[in-house]
Amino acid sequence: MVFWILLVACSGGSSPAPIPEVEVEPEQPPETTPYVLEVDEPEASLSLEQIGEGIENGISLLLQLDPTPLHDAYESIVMANEDEDCPNYVERLDDAGRYDYWNDHCETASGVRFQGWGQRKRYPESWDGDHYMLDDGYINGEFEVLLADGTLIDFSGRSDFYEKEESDQDLVFDLRTYGSFKVLDGQNSGTWLQQELAVDIDLRAYEREESRGGGRYYDLEGGISGMSGVVSAFHAESFYLHNEAYGSHCELEPYGRVSVRDEAGQWYHVEFDGPAYNGAWSYTPDCDGCGMVWYRGEPLGQACASFDALLVWNNGVRPW
Length: 320
Prior knowledge:
It is a single chain. The protein is mainly beta. It has helices at 2-11, 48-62, 68-78, 308-312; strands spanning 89-91, 100-107, 113-123, 126-127, 131-146, 152-166, 171-184, 198-207, 216-225, 231-242, 255-262, 267-273, 290-295, 298-304. 13% of the residues lie in helices and 40% in strands. Strands 1, 2, 3, 4, 5, 6, 7, 8, 9, 10, 11, 12, 13 and 14 form a 14-stranded antiparallel sheet that branches. β6 and β7 form a beta hairpin.
């Protein structure tokens, strides 16, 4: 009985006071600031004179890009050294328009090594009713063919061209080439095929027959990298140039943008204001072969270059 009374006594009395609730404000994240990488703007390293000289060097290289030695080398190195087992041809050129197309890694009985794949089409001179095709070639692929004596063709890209004479005797030249190409055969020493260039161009040149007034124009997109000197690359955009005989009011200056790249990889863009098409008007005081240079969005001044070679051509007959 005593034990029960003690239990009752211990369980009696007032309940403990409630613990007051404390409002805790949520912890705020620390203030952050945007991460800004401060980079010094590279200063222009080319003078206006060097930019003009770089443009002229690029033009000089353009006039060396004759595609015929590359296509001739394909015939003399690739086609002349294949055998019945090497390389494997997927299809052959025929009247249906298919290409010579091979894909293989092999070695012929005479020790010629074929690696990669290639497509090729080359047509001889022909008349198709409204024009005379003087030459017409196409090569596409990624391949290397090496002879035992060191003769080599190393091809990566595409080369597509034609030369034709229209029924009215006008001449048309068209070239689409991109990639890198090397030929070591004892016949192309000093040419563009041994200069380690990377090419990406689309050009069209035209010569009107003399009895109808003559005249030439030159239309270009693209450029060349791997140039030697302080200018390492040349690029043209919407470039058009024609001479007075073809209707130009300013044959000294083209229309479009020409850009050059320095050794540090910085581009300089030159805007030219010559006539944009045959018969287009041009502002006479601006007909000086000079254009405003822009570097990283800022004007640097005028750079001047001569474009005469594009209308004279190498030998007066072909634009390359």
